[in-house]
Amino acid sequence: MATIAAENKATVQAKAEPQVQVAAPSRREFLYYIWGASLVMVLGEAAVAFIWFALPRFKEGTFGGIFDFPVNKVPLNNDAPYNEASGRFWVTHYDGKLAILYGICTHLGCLPKWVPNNDRFECPCHGSKFERSGRFIEGPAPRSLDRFPIVVQFSDGTTASTSAEGGAVDISGREVVSIRIDTGRKLTMPGHQLPAEG
Ligand code: FES
Asked: pTM for the full model?
């Protein structure tokens, strides 16, 4: 009697709790899942990269961003270069040309100073020396001073800009009305020469 009751109970339980069987994903399904997850990750990274590059990371007028440099601060031709500490650059006007020099020594990153008595930049750390144009003179620096690109607008409405190699802009005999400096793009010139002037 007790055995029959136990069997009935087992039967009722079996009916009340049907076994759910979950089939393991097939190899093809598994590969689909992996592929889908990879696609989501790639798209996510692409979206992050897009946002990162689309958003301006540097404010105008701060190092790494654009500077609208006041024309009246441009040194007279072959006068001492002007130091703009907030942008880490020197504005140099030599032989009728305008160039913006990155104020960091190309040797190990010290800050070369303009030495009026010697009419050149001199680095206090290991003695590299550079002309007013930024061209290397002597010392351990591996190359001339780097430059930042500029766009110069003249009173006749025309513009001129730094060449892709870093060539200076010829402003001789022309009235400059605006100067835009991009401190987010350093132009490095290999060796101890300067590029052909733009
Ligand atoms: S850091 Fe300028 S010469 Fe070494």
From this structure: 0.71
